[in-house]
Design brief:
The complex is a heterodimer.
Chain A (H helix, E strand, L loop, with lengths): L1 H35 L2 E2 L9 E2 L3 H7 L2 H34 L4 H13 L2 H11 L17 H29 L3 H9 L4 H29 L3 H6 L9 H11 L3 H33 L1
Antiparallel strand pairs in A: 1-2
Helix pairs in contact in A: 1-11, 2-11, 3-6, 3-8, 4-6, 5-6, 6-8, 8-11, 10-11
Chain B lengths: L1 H24 L2 E7 L4 H11 L5 E7 L4 H13 L7 E5 L3 H6 L3 E2 L3 H8 L4 H6 L1 E2 L2 E2 L2 E4 L4 E5 H7 L10 H9 L7 E3 L6 H13 L16 H15 L12 H10 L2 E6 L2 H12 L1 H8 L1 E4 L17 E6 L4 H14 L2 H11 L12 H6 L3 H9 L10 H11 L10 H14 L1
Helix pairs in contact in B: 2-15, 9-10, 9-18, 12-13, 18-19
The chains are: A mainly alpha, B alpha/beta.
Chain lengths: 284, 421
């Protein structure tokens, strides 16, 4: 008993500095943002600073911009992650199954992930520029809503599919070969083996990959900033928070948007975790 | 041991004194936060002003684009950075910076030096609530640029400066396919606000009046919306209008797809440079024509867009350096300095006398039109929340093809919401 207590104390002592450091760089800013979101505070009018309670939240939730940006963020997240998932799974299977040139394939697939988001956003913007772009034609891709969405999603998919593929590959590797052999012996075809064996076995990996990518995609900023600056209805929630905080210097409003964005992300994460838990429970 | 101690004590008492002396005796050190596009004239202006050794100026180069420059500056200014002494400001920042107490009003003698001989539009952009807060360094207005041969072919003569947008679009639309575009800004960016503001002012209206009341839901607002609509959907429309900015307009005009465009004076210098390198382009360059910005209402002279930059003194500047900073500001914006900027960077001066200089007139054949244009230009609204206002206007009128006469009222609502938040 005594020993257990000593060990626990030692544990706290050893983890303590790291814990302190972590809270200094994460918890403090989060709390400060939450506090600022309750203030009416603009950097360009420092004298008019005042406590506003939930006023900022009211302003944001009743503004058109918030709902419009929430919709565009959801559209970009859902279409992007869905496309990445399908392509990523196909790539993961190919990387897993292919016998010849496996190393080369894995390297090649990973290349886009090594490119900076800003760089890939510029590359796609130039590619889709009317008349001079690599895509060709004189259609103004970034000038219409649907086509601008297409370009943004394409950029995101190109860039992050490798991440998805890698996560799924990690899941595939853990599936023991015997399971497939047993399924084969039982007369299951390739399609059946995929749906009945592969998918259930890699389900945890699928959940993790989808969770990571959804959270990431929901905070999309760079691609939109470079390609449209939020024009033609492509403004996302992160962009809204940037616009308030950095451009309009509305620290209060911007912080409130950040807090709401944080709440959205937390909601998504908890949804995934719940689904994930019931999955594990079902498998047991 | 005792000796050593004595030495240490002596060192400790003398060294800080020496440091003190160095600070008070040497020249005052100032830092100038300047944009990236005029390196050579910036260097020569600094050299000329610091020749007598009374002060030194260190130049810190800001990033490209006024939005990014502002983002950097406001963070330093709101933290009261002592090293932000001289600031090159976009003309639209004056109200916000002055209201926030980030820049100091010019003392009366400096204000008098700065005001004397500076063109009306430029000086207005440096003034907030009756006080001069900055010294105009550079100015500029947009002109109507056109290919002379094509204007003739279309049967119009823009030189008189009485052409209306309606006449222009109709005439340009009669040109052959691939030559009939009238290029104007259309991307969702600050340049689009510049354009909309000029249209509304040319129609005799104001985006925001002196009392801060929005004036978009008015005859002038609707007339401006009608011009945008016919530019976007009429015979002279360019397919890529909704992403068009100064540089893409210039490309379309140089390439020939556009026969008309509204753009700043730098396009002439850029074309001259290209013509010197490419003999084939020389013919196009020789065909360049320029005229006053088009009108919205036939009887009313146009109110051309106003651009440019002013220099102000940052409020974080320590008391002891302020007087020197104002002296430096007056020197950097002298007529001589402005002439160098105009000659070397192609950006028009803010002082009227520069336009009478023989060198300037030889290099800029459009000097007279430019000077009058700046003098009659309509500054963009002077409000503290300019940025939010500008975003609201751009959004309400974008994309250009969606604009109808009703867009004006819609923009008015969005604008009140943005400014009141």
């Amino acid at each position: 008993m005594n020993r257990a207590r000593t060990e626990r104390r030692l544990g706290w002592l050893m983890a303590g500095p790291a814990l302190l450091l972590m809270s200094a760089v994460t918890v403090v800013p989060v709390l400060r943002t939450a506090w600022l979101s309750l203030e009416r505070y603009s950097l360009s009018a420092p004298d008019e600073r005042a406590f506003a309670g939930l006023g900022n939240y009211g302003d944001i939730l009743t503004s058109q911009a918030w709902w419009q940006d929430l919709t565009s963020t959801i559209v970009l997240t859902v279409t992007g992650v869905a496309a990445e998932f399908v392509l990523g799974f196909a790539l993961a299977l190919a990387m897993h199954k292919v016998l010849w040139g496996r190393r080369l394939l894995r390297t090649v697939v990973l290349v886009p992930y090594a490119v900076l988001t800003v760089v890939s956003a510029f590359a796609f913007r130039f590619a889709f520029q009317p008349s001079v772009g690599f895509v060709g034609g004189d259609f103004n891709w970034l000038g219409e809503t649907w086509s601008a969405y297409t370009v943004i999603v394409l950029t995101e998919v190109w860039k992050t599919t490798p991440f998805m593929a890698l996560m799924l590959l990690a899941g595939l590797v853990t599936v023991p070969g015997e399971v497939y052999e047993a399924a084969k012996v039982d007369g299951a075809g390739a399609w059946q083996r995929f749906w009945r064996v592969t998918v259930p076995c890699v389900r945890p990996a699928i959940m993790v990959a989808l969770l990571f990518r959804t959270l990431d995609a929901f905070r999309i900023f760079d691609t939109v900033y470079i390609q449209t600056q939020g024009a033609v209805g492509t403004e996302t929630l992160s962009f809204l928070s940037y616009r308030f905080l950095i451009r309009d210097l509305e620290v209060g409003l911007g912080s409130a948007v950040s807090v709401l964005l944080f709440a959205c992300v937390a909601l998504i994460a908890s949804g995934f975790v719940r689904a994930f838990r019931s999955e594990l429970g079902g498998a047991r | 041991m005792q000796n050593l101690l004595r030495l240490a004590v002596a060192a400790l008492t003398v060294l800080p004194l020496a440091a003190c002396a160095a600070e008070s005796e040497g020249p005052v050190a100032l830092t100038w936060w300047q944009g990236p596009n005029a390196e050579k004239p910036t260097r020569s202006a600094v050299a000329a002003c610091t020749r007598d050794g009374k002060y030194t100026i260190k130049v810190e180069t800001l990033p490209e684009g006024s939005d990014k420059q502002r983002e950097q500056l406001v963070r330093r200014l709101s933290a009261k950075d002592r090293s932000v002494n001289l600031i090159t400001m976009d003309v639209v920042w004056t109200a916000e910076f002055a209201e926030a107490g980030w820049i100091l009003p010019l003392p009366a003698p400096t204000a008098a030096t700065v005001s004397a001989g500076t063109l009306g539009g430029a000086l207005k952009s440096a003034t907030w609530e009756g006080k001069v807060y900055a010294a105009p360094l550079l100015s500029g207005s947009q002109l109507l640029w056109y290919r002379r041969s094509r204007a003739q072919q279309a049967g119009i003569d823009p030189v008189k400066g009485e052409l209306t947008w309606e006449q222009l679009i109709k005439a340009a639309g009669g040109l052959p396919e691939g030559e009939r575009v009238v290029a104007t800004p259309g991307n969702r960016y600050e340049g689009y606000t510049v354009f909309i503001n000029a249209l509304i002012a040319s129609a005799g209206g104001q985006i925001v009046d002196a009392q801060g009341k929005p004036g978009l839901d008015s005859e002038a607002g609707r007339a401006a919306a009608a011009v945008i609509s016919s530019l976007a959907t009429g015979p002279a429309a360019l397919k890529g209008l909704s992403t068009l900015d100064e540089e893409t307009m210039r490309a379309a005009f140089e390439q020939g797809e556009a026969s008309f465009m509204t753009n700043w004076g730098y396009v002439y210098a850029a074309a001259a440079e290209r013509a010197a390198k490419e003999p084939a382009f020389k013919k196009v360059f020789d065909d360049y024509g320029w005229a006053r910005y088009p009108r919205v209402t036939p009887g009313l002279p146009s109110a051309p867009p106003l651009g440019g930059s002013n220099i102000a003194v940052g409020a974080g500047t320590p008391e002891s350096r302020r007087e020197t900073a104002f002296t430096a500001l007056a020197c950097l914006t002298s007529a001589q300095s402005q002439k160098a900027f105009m000659m070397e960077a192609g950006i028009p001066a803010a002082r009227a006398s520069v336009y009478d200089d023989a060198d300037v007139r030889a290099k800029f054949p459009f000097a007279d039109v430019m000077r009058d244009s700046i003098a009659d230009a309509a500054p963009r609204p002077m409000v503290r929340k300019y940025n939010a206002l500008s975003t609201a206007i751009q959004t309400a009128f974008h994309p250009p093809a969606s604009v109808t006469r009703e867009s004006a009222a819609k923009a008015g609502t969005a604008l009140s919401e943005a400014v009141s938040q």
